[in-house]
Specification:
abc type-2 transporter like fold, 9 strands, about 375 residues, 2 domains, alpha/beta, 15 helices
């Protein structure tokens, strides 16, 4: 009977906290739904950009054969068992356009076919001039997968045309310094942003501590505005976030990490990312009456940051639309996704602050948006409740 009494009491207390209960029940099904969105056809597609410089060769009866076009057609035939495409093959006008798409995560591989490609296949003689070049960011796992598939199709096509393999000169050119990175260095951008993400705990807990202790009510007597209170908390948390970022970066440097771009640019990105994470934490604080509740609720935005922004492992980009060469994906609403991409460009590709302008603007806009929502909600929840 005592067990039953404790069970009834515990059940009533759980029912009186519908927010935590609903998040616990809904979160796992929501993650399943989001992962289904990642793979709408049950498979991942890989974008291959082709710079076809092949001039082709004349054939009998006035026909013109372009082996580069034929190879592109073979690449488009690569599908999964259900018929859904595995490779999305797109033509680009020049190398600069292709590399811009690669840097902005709009494609996984750039395939460059030399002008002599058709001529080499027709003659059947090996030629160093008839090069096939693979260009990509070697630190990205999807590049390796795409390169293996493209190379498999390429070798099969050459063997079909000649009846035997022919050693056409194939080269691989890493984007930026991606070919010289160690496995540890590949993880550093995500690890640095992880240091900032932990503010999603400390920010709401700092606010909830004032609410739980009754300090907020005493501060309210002084006619303090929500912007004043949250602004002061934000400045403190931002200092903590930047300090955590600097310490993590210092340890990485001592362990052999090297950056191709300016470290100060990475610190600026990290500082703005900390501001956006604090903004999310302030939104969590609006629904927290105690420090314990703030800690529990903060786990839910933490999971989104960890699983859907590329901090711990790469995730497919669900592109919604494009602006020029820049693709805008579904989870770009998460500020940490922009921060990770920006740090990868700085550390691997040697980018400066101007080269990550899109990520910088997105981070700034999201930071302002989340902070404004936090101030607005705090005014209507915690301050009104304390009045």
């Amino acid at each position: 009977m005592k067990l039953w009494s404790v069970f009834r009491k515990s059940a009533r207390e759980q029912w009186r906290d519908p927010l935590t209960l609903s998040l616990v029940l809904i979160f796992a099904p929501l993650v399943v739904l989001l992962y289904r969105l990642f793979f709408p056809t049950g498979s991942t597609t890989y974008t291959v950009l082709v710079l076809n410089q092949d001039v082709g060769v004349p054939q009998a009866a006035g026909q013109h054969w372009n082996a580069g076009d034929a190879l592109m057609a073979e690449l488009k035939k690569v599908t999964y068992a259900d018929g859904s495409p595995m490779l999305v093959v797109e033509r680009v006008a020049d190398r600069a356009e292709g590399e811009a798409r690669l840097k902005n995560r709009g494609a996984q591989l750039l395939l460059i076919l030399a002008p002599e490609f058709s001529q080499a296949l027709q003659s059947g003689a090996a030629s160093n001039a008839a090069t096939v070049t693979y260009v990509g960011d070697l630190t990205q796992p999807y590049y390796a997968v795409t390169a293996v598939m493209v190379n498999s199709v390429f070798e099969a096509y050459v063997k079909t045309v000649l009846g035997q393999p022919m050693p056409i000169h194939v080269t691989e050119e890493p984007l930026g310094a991606s070919g010289a990175r160690t496995e540890f260095e590949n993880y550093v951008p995500g690890l640095l942003i992880f240091a900032v993400i932990l503010l999603v705990f400390s920010a709401p807990m700092a606010v909830a501590r004032e609410v739980e202790a009754g300090t907020l009510r005493r501060l309210q007597i002084t006619r303090m505005r929500s912007l004043d209170f949250l602004g002061g908390v934000t400045l403190t948390q931002m200092i903590v976030g930047v300090a955590a970022l600097l310490l993590a970066l210092l340890v990485a440097l001592l362990l052999g990490f090297h950056s191709q771009g300016p470290l100060w640019a990475a610190i600026v990105i990290g500082a703005i990312a900390s501001l956006s994470v604090i903004g999310v934490g302030l939104i969590v604080a609006c629904f927290s009456r105690t420090v314990t509740q703030a800690f529990l609720l903060a786990n839910f935005p933490l999971a989104f940051f960890m699983f859907f922004s590329g901090v711990m492992f790469p995730v497919p980009r669900l592109t919604l639309f494009t602006i020029g060469s820049q693709s805008v994906a579904l989870f770009d609403i998460l500020p940490t996704s922009h921060a990770v991409i920006a740090l990868q460009k700085i550390f691997v590709l040697g980018a400066g602050l101007s080269d990550v302008a899109y990520e910088l603007i997105a981070l700034t806009v999201l930071s302002a948006l989340y902070f404004a929502i936090g101030v607005w909600l705090f005014q209507r929840t915690q301050l009104r409740a304390a009045a």
